[in-house]
Amino acid sequence: MHNLKTARAFTTSFYLMILLLLFTANEVKALNITLINPDKPGRPFWDLCTEIAQAAAEDLQINLEVIYGGGDRFSNQDVIQHLSLTDKNIDYLIFLPREGNALQSFTTLEKAKIPFITLERAIEANEFSAFGHPKKRFKYWIDDVHYDDSQAGKLLTKALINKSRSQGIKHQYITALNGDHSAISSKREQGLRLALEKNTSLNQIIYTMWHPVKAEQQTPYILKRYPNTNIFWAASDELALAAYAALIKSKNQQVVTGGIGGTPSAINSIKKGQLTATVGGHYMQVAWALIKAYDHSKGINNHYIDQGIPFNLVTGENVQDYNALTAKPNWRNVDFTDYSLFLNPKLDQYNFSLESIIKAL
């Protein structure tokens, strides 16, 4: 009997030891990923990106650290330089490369042997093309995630023109509130120009440096200079909402207004009949980058396709389809493991569609 008890105790201890080893092994395998949020805390768009990414990290059992870049290319580069010199255990770094010092960022990370995934296309095509594409010139550049900003500008322009024409206005005079002189702004502006049709005129492109306060302050002066303005095109939802606030103050609510972002505040504004349109979906980009990093860590190395993810257009006609985004969405309702190629062997390509996300909210 004594020997039997001893054997059972040994067996129990053995299995407990195995479970502890398995648990420890799983802990060791957890990925450590650092996200450089390029902005400051409190900015709606990048706060939303980060919130969604944190939900995805939980599903994939990723240790996600968020560092704020401060809103300019110099502070972002300082963060990258600091991380490359520390002893931090970073399995992957996710960041938005900036025009003018992107090459420095790539070179720094390559030298430090830190695998990285880039976001958006904030640098001009000629500078970006000099880098080749992921895994070529820079072996530690694993992948990139970007949306088609030209398509976004085009979608928004067509929606605003259509709305204006539905009001019986025969000639559309567009005044544009753009961001800065980055590639993102340039591509959105390119889409605007490509969508211009007969009986549409572009008054001016005004650069706001993405500051909503500046956009609101400038709107009355813009209307004095271009009193024929019947469309305000904005490169972001924040700029569009700021322009609309100024229009309310000036008792000029007939101007059709819309922006790019697809943020909850913009969608709510459309539901209220204020903004006409918003174009969005790109707030998913960090979550998609996390999934690509996770899959890469599991040996999934897809052939790189240099193609931007399409945006989604929200107007008064389909705004009800986006109701889930207008309250406080619980992004933890989304099972982000469903989008991993490693965890779903039947998938042969990524399905980064906003529609499937909305259904889960």
What does this structure look like?
The chain has 361 residues and is an alpha/beta fold. The chain is 44% helix and 16% strand. It contains 12 helices and 11 strands. A 6-stranded mixed sheet has the order 7-6-8-9-10-11, with helices on both faces. Strands 2-1-3-4-5 form a 5-stranded parallel sheet, sandwiched between helices. Helix 6 crosses helix 7. The protein is globular. The protein starts with a helix and ends with a helix. Residues 4-28 have low confidence and may be disordered.
Primary descriptors:
single chain, 361 residues, alpha/beta, six-stranded mixed beta sheet, five-stranded parallel beta sheet, 12 helices, 44% helix, globular
Kindly summarize this structure in a few lines.
Helix 5 links the parallel strand 4 (116-119) and strand 5 (141-145). This protein starts with a helix and ends with a helix.
Q: Which SSEs are present, and which pair or pack?
A:
Blueprint: H1 2-29, E1 32-37, H2 44-59, E2 63-68, H3 73-85, E3 92-95, H4 102-112, E4 116-119, H5 125-129, E5 141-145, H6 149-166, E6 172-178, H7 183-194, E7 200-207, H8 212-225, E8 231-234, H9 237-249, E9 256-261, H10 264-271, E10 277-280, H11 285-297, E11 312-315, H12 354-360
Parallel strand pairs: 1-2, 1-3, 3-4, 4-5, 6-7, 6-8, 8-9, 9-10
Antiparallel strand pairs: 10-11
What about the largest sheet? 6 strands, mixed
**Strand fraction:** 15-25%
Helix/strand order: HEHEHEHEHEHEHEHEHEHEHEH
Number of strands: 11
Question: Which strands sit side by side, in order, in the main sheet?
Answer: 7-6-8-9-10-11
Rg over alpha carbons: 24 Å
- Enumerate how many helices there are, as a single number: 12
Binned, the helix content reads 40-55%
